[in-house]
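Hi R.,

Here's the chain you asked about this morning:
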Amino acid sequence: MASSLSPQELHTLSSKAVAAKSLAYCPYSNFRVGACILTTSGEYIQGANVENASYPVGTCAERVAFGTAIVAGHKDFKAIAVATDISPPASPCGMCRQFMKEFTAPSFPVYMYDKDGNHFVRTIGELLPNSFGPDDFPPTKT
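And here is the predicted structure, written out as tokens:
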């Protein structure tokens, strides 16, 4: 897949995703995840996973990053990078894939980085084929 990001954008995006791992609150799993979104306006917004003693209450790095971006008024995104301490790179969970689908086109790139900086990229459409999203609702009547 051809990248729509410049080499500098990709470097900054991946560096900020890796750096975001240090912000993770993961005392139960010790599984650090960092994420960084690049908006179409050129801003980088980081997120990290935040666990909770009641496991289902935790929030993944990808959703933290998107939630932060949305409440800051961002609506258009170029890419996201996700970084973990394992190899091969971890892919976003199903809940995060569905969450990202809400705010992105099927061509939205998801860069996944492992502990050594190796990565691969898939689109949200590849990660969540035949998905359900905002366009699947019938038009509202006025």
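One quick note: DSSP finds four helices and five strands in the chain.

Cheers,
M.
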